Amino acid sequence: MKFAPIQLSFAAFLTAGLALAGCSRDDGSSAATADGNHMSAAEQTYVAPGEKDEYYLFYSGGHSGQVFVAGIPSMRHISTIPVFSPYPGTGYGFDEETKEMLGEYTWGDVHHPALSKTGGNYDGRWLFVNDNANNRIARIDLRDFKTKQILGPIPNSSGNHGSSFVTEDSEYVLVATRFSVPLPKGRYANPDNYADEFNGMVSGIAIDPEDGTMSVGWQILTPPFNWDLGSTGKGPSHDWAFWTSYNTEMASSVMEVNASQRDRDLAAFVNWRKAEEAVRNGQVTVEDGVPMIDPSKTPGVLYYVEVGKSPHGIDTDPTGHWVIASGKLQPTTTVFNFDKVLAAIEAEDFTGEFRGVPIINYDAIVEGEVPVGLGPLHTQFDGKGNAYTSLYIESAVAQWKMPPWTDEEKADLNSVVLDKMPVHFNIGHLVVGGSDTREPYGDWLVAMNKLSKGRHLSVGPSQPESSQLISLKGDKMEMVYEAYTEPEPHFAQIIKADTLQPIEVYPKAENKDPNAVWSLDEAEVERKGDVVEAKVVAVRSRFGPDRIEAKVGDTLVLHITNIEQTTDMIHGFGLAEHNLNVVIDPGETKTVRVKLEKPGVFPFYCTNFCSALHQEMQGYLTVRPASGEVAQQ
Amino acid sequence: MTSFLRAEFRFLEKPLNGVSRLWLILAVAALVGATVLPLWKIHLVAPQYQEGLQLTVYAWKLVGGNGGQDLVEINNLNHYIGMKAIHAADFIEMKWIPFAFGLFAMLSFRAAVHGKMSQVVDLMALFVYFGLFSMGSFAYRMHQYGHDLDPKAPVTIEPFTPTILGTQQIANFVQTSLPMIGSLFLFAFFACLVLAIWCSRREAA
User: Fold this and answer.
1) Which of residues 555-594 of A touch B (CB under 8 A)?
2) Positive/negative CA dihedral, A406, A408, A411, A416
């Protein structure tokens, strides 16, 4: 980034002002960077017009059903990727292909995006996101930033919260159920008999290594705990995945009380390689088409580990040796030594079992309980030996030193808590770029806060969410920026921009749609019985044909090809009074189908501004009354 | 006067020495270069086309930049002003220019083998004629494209002639036309002929 002298002096003035304002408090916002330069927050986050951000930030959109794309360090929202909800802006959910993908649902609840990996690092191919509400999982192709597949509802399960967690070579996206239901699905059972009649599930969603196509590989039947969040192993823990749970009480009413009675809940340590093996060896039953493993009959697939009260996040560090779980109702986060986990399993050092599944001796595997603060939720890693834990109740991020610890440090783990940064307010997830890979970028942290409480221009009672950018470049955390989003980011992923090479037009040669036409001469309308089918060309600045004739009762099928091959030469097709708008990117063909039920003349027009004569890019659908009635001439 | 004509006749009868014949062989090589390398480029830059749109002219083909897409884009834009679409197939020059280059190569060989000064002079005269005719034809074609505008076009602009050498502003575009390396080879061809003549200027007739 380059700065004109006037901007520099302005920035210096700002910094001086901030220094004065901040002289009475120590909130860690010192402006010293690792290289010793004194850079203001404004300088660190300023991306000049025409310049580009260094990282992509993929926010989950929560119950908006979408994924938001922003840049770091500017935090500017760049685009929205619709996944589980129709989005007229890109015509998503209006054409036949995306309508079929959405199925019967018009919303989803996106919680945890996960980037595909090769060798434990992001490969920039796909982004997977879960739908907590309708128990689905979706794959976004990062070549064109489009949703390509929605899998689900996943059989034999409900409430896909504990995902998306991708294994080191994208073998699987691993998912676990937050809500348990009676199985097989569709069966009635009284929730009073929750413990006996309901079940949870861990599923291995296999990913085709070539094209990313997802399929349900296998499932592991579990008690009806509410599986919460998880992570996949790395290196020594490559074959493993971990989930926390709440409600080991197996309550089914007044959950906030009844599911908060035990001091410790059980986390699941799952060996997915062993699960694969069980499927290969036929140690499964097939339920609703899916090989299902009963972990009590297949030793080695599942172990339980006790974790402090009602835990939420469980995160594996970049080395794969340490697993960090946080009990949200206790002020510490627990560090498990994975090498000791393997040793305890080897030595059968168990303290009991639950429904035939061993519970590993907590004391044998715990490295320490770090007093990070109140309401610890999630932990991220910078790859430089530090961990960052979000503190919901305390509304802060704690920075602490990862093991190995000295004896002195172990004696008082308060000493490994290095820094705290207040956030505004009530942080949920946080993300450090590449934290779930072997090589985190480790320079930026985004705190995703649940409450913004009027820090922004007031927009009435429906408040946006706040996200704050914290620099990890210095010794201390430094708060540098905040931005607001639509509801509601849960987790996010950060990837270095140059890892992705998105296309900007669909090459004509790749368009395999049999109904695509590439010149105005080829455009045609054909009637086949009650179906009027047209191959339509969209090009600056006209539709060909621009007159389509039909009658009431016909089904209109349009295959619209945007024959442009120029970046950003996008055309829309909106049909008046028919609830129809599709947007066709350069080189793309989209098919729409609409039943014509009312007579009249209906204009259609280009909805996505394209050119100087965009307004003129329009035509007419004429619908005559059904035969038998007299057409008005 | 008579003595001048006689001197000229004697000059044309001069044999070509080894060095001159070598220059003629090199002239053939220069023609090969001019055939395979781009001769001319037309580059268009506008605020919304910062990276520019490019047309590259070869002896035998017209190539749009960006995998041919730039030509499609130029035609797309030109339809607003009612300009005829530019199609490579319309340029009949591109059929006969490679043939002409072949002919010049044959004549260069002929002169190199026969070793006659008069053949080199003939060749040079033909080439100059060819060069002037080609440039004129190219300029006329540019003029036609810029003047044969559809009166029903959405945007009415003053007829114009795209420049064939240099830079000019056309609406929101800055158009630049410049020779490329192939043209340098054509110049080299001409230079080889001059050198072939020069090196044998003192040979006994």
Assistant:
1) 564-566
2) negative
